[in-house]
Fold each of these.
Amino acid sequence: MNADMTSVDRGWMIRRARPADAVQLLNILDVVGAEGKYIANDAASWNVADQRRILEGMVDHAQRILVGDYFGAVVGSLEVVRGGLAKNAHTGTVAMAILPSYRGLGIGTGLLQEAHRWAADVGIEKMCLSVFSSNEGAIRLYRKAGYQLEGIRVGQFRVQGELVDELLMACFLNR
Ligand SMILES: CC(C)(COP(=O)(O)OP(=O)(O)OC[C@H]1O[C@@H](n2cnc3c(N)ncnc32)[C@H](O)[C@@H]1OP(=O)(O)O)[C@@H](O)C(=O)NCCC(=O)NCCS
């Protein structure tokens, strides 16, 4: 098996993103952004050329983008960005999204497991993320994956007209 790839017997696999995935990665951000209630961005903030450049130039120990690949289609993505300073290089910040029709299949869990594996390998000790307090499905996923609440920014976002809190969650990998 390719070292970058976690095959599972359910039609999907988790693998590292490639430059050729740029269009599909941006599509995920556009589709999930347009849903309007799960992620902060309304649409992808990169164009295809930028996204491809990011994928080509990614420094191995500093950032990783993983995809959920369903019979060759990129249906989910997860990005980990490592802290860029000596004082926070032991942390990684996670963001993820799955296309609507492919949720509930375990792809989110698979992406997080693979992200944790990579992070531990490169010496990251603490994984961090932020999630809207209204996003119950994502919060459940994160709790199941070992994340705990460590802070709340009250009324930090307005989502579909309502103020919601930003929950800061984190998971220590080797405790
Ligand atoms: C949240 C998200 C990443 C979860 O990915 P997924 O592939 O659907 O999750 P999984 O199939 O691995 O489910 C794992 C667990 O998460 C929880 N979960 C996921 N979606 C859920 C939902 N809609 N309602 C309730 N629980 C949910 C469940 O506990 C589930 O475990 P279970 O099926 O054993 O109960 C995905 O639904 C998604 O992309 N949502 C929109 C974008 C988003 O919210 N991104 C995160 C922003 S912080």
Note: The radius of gyration is 16 Å.
Amino acid sequence: MLRPRALIVSILACAALGASPDPQIVPQHRLAGGQYVAIRQLASACELGRDRSHNARRAEYRTSTAELAIEADHRDIHLNGVVHWLSAPVLAQRGTLWIHADDLSKTIAPVLHPLLLAANASLRTIILDPGHGGADTGARGLSGHVEKEWTLDVARHVASRLADAGVRVVLTRDADTTTPLEGRPAFCLAHGGDIFVSIHFNSGGPTANGIETYCLTPAGSASTEDPNARHRNDAQVGNRWDERNVWLAHCVHAATLSATGAVDRGVRRARFEVLRDVNCPAILIEGGFLTNQTEEQQVMNPEYRNRLAEAIAKGILIYKRSLETLSRRTD
Ligand SMILES: [Zn+2]
């Protein structure tokens, strides 16, 4: 499998060469109560070459600039070096595999072809949101340390790296203060945020581990943890940036995995308040499990937190440069 960093560079090279298949031109078919596209037609439109899997229940495409691997009945796919969670499982019907049309337009196309996102792109102000704070401690680790300490520390380091790169950064809190969830999107709007990045650490069973990055579930789709196949939901404020959300999540998630070697829990979907109500592209990073002894020990190490912060900043800068590069092309 190709390394995430190499892939990000190659994706941009691909975009710069002008390869820009339009997901609208892939024929859709009515199956299982939804609109689906056949994997062969998707691969053809996205210039992914031929299927290398030799297995009727899998499909694997790999070119010098892109990688896609899917499996029947699975919602998790491999897309350019990282796991992405689809809104619906891959279907096996009529002798081929099918992907929901929304998953092509809202997940696969924006990652394979960020050129499609370039119109009116600008990124001047980044809002960093250290999760929790004050009376809201967040997750409690095995050591007794709490999430709010680490989120603020990592956010400050990310801010410092971004400031070094000449980017304006504002933190939703820069001290151990109670900051209500509902106030954070309003804070972003008031400070002219062009992207919003919320930083958290996870909790779960003792064996749960890895990094996951969330962006808002598209309207009508099921969130990653939702066992129901499909949901109807009205579009939220944050759905205006579905395509940029997933591209930003992809850039940051790939960078954090590359820097830490953590288990890839994927780019996931949820309707978290801070993602739903924010007035610009937004992601939420869960940078490891404080309830997992190995991961908590890593998070307690300042060198590890610094590495994680540098990776988050690097992912944000890759996203920023991609939009700027692409904007210049489309001026
Ligand atoms: Zn949290």
Note: The chain has two domains: 4-117, 125-330.
